[in-house]
Amino acid sequence: MKTVLIAEDEKSIREFITINLKLSGYDIIEASDGIEAIALFNANEEKIDVALLDIMMPGKDGVEVCKHIRSKNNNTGIIFLSAKTQEEDKICGLISGADDYITKPFSPSELLARIEVLLRRVNYSKDLLSKTPRDTITLGEYKLDLKKHHLYKNDAAIDLTQTEYLIMECFFNNPGVSIDRGTILQKVWGDINYGDDKLVDVNIRRLRLKIEDDPSTPAHLLTVWGQGYRWAI
Fold first, then answer.
1. CB 3.0-4.6 Å disulfide test: which of 64, 81, 85, 176 passes with 60?
2. Whole-number Å distance between alpha carbons of 35 and 20
3. Beta partners for residue 50, in sequence order
């Protein structure tokens, strides 16, 4: 049974999510604010597979909770719950390490689909640990470890989330090739998020902050205007 941490301060929304996820076979841990969410994550880190975080919560907001989770674990799936008016908060949340977001109001079927897609992605990454036919891909000063899911720059490790790793795997398997946003979305997020280019753009921005010497003038992860992105070789 998969375990989901739900951090939502509105009781009615939290109960709505809890009921529907329990009916679908998930084990649930509930938090009514950000401080409680952090405490519950610390106590249950090994069993929590996905965290659903409301962006606006008392005590600590969803972005702070997300940063805390990412400081301890890059494998936990994180989905933000946001209002339509929280556009900048969505972007901030994705930059802080979230894998996806869903806008309120949402249907149970949409939420379940996003959780299932995220879990498949995380499980796919874990499966690669034992099935990868080669150990590494090296491009210049960068080395992608296909078994440990680590990226190295001049032998210094760069921490990646599962989402970031899969994006980098796309580029390292296709060096010098332009990859459009739709292809990246389908490979990493699946059909449920097809067409939401923001997910790709924000994750590219986050990756540049981690890997480029000057993120504002990237030398490796380049934008191909009107198409998508490519890894320069």
1. 64
2. 24
3. 4, 77
